[in-house]
Amino acid sequence: MDFLKMAIFALMGGYATFLANRTIAVYHDGLRPMMPEFINGNISHREMLGISFAISIGFITGFAMPITLATGIIVVHIILLTADIIGVSVRNTIVAVALGALWGGAVPVLLDSIIALFGMLPVNFLDALAAVGDPITYAFVAFPALAVAYQFDKVKGLVTFGISLLGRIVVEFVNPVMIAGNEVSLSAEGIAMLCGMICLIVFAALDKSRGDDSGNNLFADNVKRIRGNIKWLIPMGAIISVAASYQWIAGEPIAAALLGKGDVTSAAIVAFIQAIAFLPLVITTALVSGVYATNGWCDWLEGLGYISPNPIVAAVLGGAAMGVEVMGLDRIGKFLNRFPALKSSGDNIRTAMTEILEVALLVGGINAGNTIWGGTGIFMVVALYLLNEALGRPVIKMAAAPLASIVVGVLANIAAVIGVLPVA
Fold first, then answer.
1. Using alpha carbons only, what angle is made at residue 189 by residues 180 and 363, rounded to the nearest 5 degrees?
2. Residue 294, SS3?
3. Chain segment 218-237, per-residue pLDDT in tens
4. How far is the C-alpha of 198 from the C-alpha of 192, rounded, in Å?
5. pTM
6. In this entry, which stretches build a coiled coil (predicted)?
7. What is the DSSP letter of 60?
């Protein structure tokens, strides 16, 4: 039992719950715009419990948990969305923080217990579940081309795809390279993604459309409120970066899959790009509500942790980064309003990432199902995935295949126990 890990996650869960309880910050972007009514007393704690639970439980059970089990990396939704739920529903701050800390500390223990349980099963499908993340490692680099195609036109999207592909091929050809007398293997996926992002930024910068930032004056009081809470927000940035420095957490499936494979550099690159993708959404909802995001511009706080040489440096970088975000809130809002093409790029990056994840996780889920139970596993994953669609998606689309592969693993063990499936 790793007591340091438990302590850090307990601190993360408790502190995030404190921020939600004191209406300083919440993690769910959909909950943030509702916070002003909660602050004014127009929505009760009981009503906020229903709202926060309804919009968060699917992400916790149907998205974060399957990816966490498949990669062994804790997706922060499990901690921070639960902190939202507890924080806005429990009136007493001390009780809320205690519950949040208890849940945070319990999560790594539960994960380790589940992994140990898998090892005791007749069919240990944990290794097979790791295959869920394999396609993500290679597919995610396509998202800049897709985002460019959505925002600008198909030709620019194809050009971006071609440049990304060329960058990948060149890196594969020249690897390993000599740097300061040492052999270094460059990340083909990281370079391809960087090439694509450069194309997207160039196309956005060349866009001639300009906006108006005068509307930001309407949110001056909200900016003042968030800045007044900076002393409470900075520690949260430090906590997240420290946990990331140990490579224990990820903000989303792509980084989780990369960390699971040991590719920390690519995970950091993805985290920084996620920040670009979500920055417009976080800034907009913060300006409208006066309540900030628990993890800031997700997920560059994690990215800073990944590249930090030790937890102390990670804490300093994470706290400083959160402070920079808060102090620059109004300026960033004005900048985004002045350049709508860059603001739209965030929306298109998120859309592209989501669509690529849905395809990659479907392929990964099918591969995992087939590895667990040859042939039958493919049938079950595909059938359960399509049934989820037919039933109106009770499980989030990108989590349907990973969750189906877990179902295959459970059924394979039942079949092994009753003698239907031979155990290797």
1. 150
2. coil
3. 678 899 999 999 999 999 99
4. 10
5. 0.85
6. none
7. I
